[in-house]
Specification:
By secondary structure, the chain is mainly α. The chain is built from 13 helices and no strands. α1 (about 1-15) packs across α12, α3 packs antiparallel against α9 and α6 (about 95-100) packs across α7 (about 105-120). It binds a DNA duplex through α4, α7, α9, α10 and α12.
Length: about 240
DNA sequence: TCCCAGGGGCCGA
DNA sequence: TCGGCCCATGGG
């Protein structure tokens, strides 16, 4: 049963790294008494509309881009007063593109941010107690499954598991996945394992990112890896495994 | 200089 | 359906 391994890996990673406290929210960094990294200690349902929008925007900005660069962009946006869906709709797209330049793909991402801002404002999805339908998010240009699930999970606390390259890489190497599974199939494996507990799904994805950055890189650093013993990489008998 | 980074859209076979 | 290409900056 794969569920056993999935929950076991969660325990191992949580024990090794501790709670990750995702998602860092810039606006909270400015608040007295808050962790200086801006990690939210509030459940997503209690986030302010602007914090919620910041998470959604961050999910777009980090597409195929390191969070380090995204943070600088969010900082730039905030300083110029653009970390606000109304302002994003007001400003010319070329100007928005220039201000998010550091996070790459700036022309595409400027268009995506405008589309997303309009959608969230029109549906009043930044207000408390209301969150967008997944299919509606997926219908937006520039929002794929990973981005939609990141927004739903971290901005709204809706229990969707976020499947990214890191997830595929780690669990292919562990032999839990083969590399042929569809996105939704992988997401279902994880979310059903934790009875769709949003807090755990948030934590697990964060731990996966941490582990992929520190150990399970594209070129793996197996020394000191807490999953080393259970990893198929050690057995060298997994020729069919796809490399992510 | 080269590789990599928390994807997604589009197009042709 | 699936592979290949495009988008693009910045750090190691």
């Amino acid at each position: 049963m794969r569920h056993g391994k999935i929950s076991n890996v969660y325990s191992v990673l949580l024990n090794a790294y501790g709670p990750q406290g995702w998602w860092p929210v810039y606006s909270l960094r400015q608040t007295e008494g808050r962790d200086e990294r801006g990690y939210s200690d509030k459940p997503p349902g209690k986030l302010s509309p602007l914090s919620r929008f910041e998470i959604a925007a961050g999910a777009v900005l980090t597409q195929n881009t390191s969070w380090f660069n995204v943070e600088k962009t969010i900082d730039t946006l905030s300083r110029s007063g653009l970390l606000d869906p109304v302002k994003i709709l007001d400003v010319p797209q070329s100007e928005l593109a220039a201000s998010i330049r550091q996070s790459g793909y700036y022309n595409q991402k400027a268009r995506k941010l405008k589309i997303l801002a309009a959608f969230l404002l029109d549906g009043e999805y930044l207000q408390d107690g209301k969150f967008p339908d997944r299919d509606a998010l997926l219908g937006l240009w520039g929002i794929g499954k990973e981005t939609a699930d990141s927004i739903l999970l971290y901005a709204y606390g809706v229990p969707f598991f976020v499947v990214d390259t890191y997830t595929k890489r780690i669990f292919n190497r562990l032999g839990v996945l083969t590399g042929d599974e569809e996105y939704d199939e992988i997401a279902e494996k994880f979310s059903s394992c934790f009875k769709s507990d949003a807090a755990v799904l948030q934590e697990y994805h964060a731990l996966i990112v941490r582990h992929a950055k520190e150990q399970c890189r594209k070129k793996p650093e197996c020394n000191g890896c807490v999953l080393r013993e259970s990893c198929l990489l050690n057995l060298q008998n997994n020729p069919s495994s796809k490399n992510f």
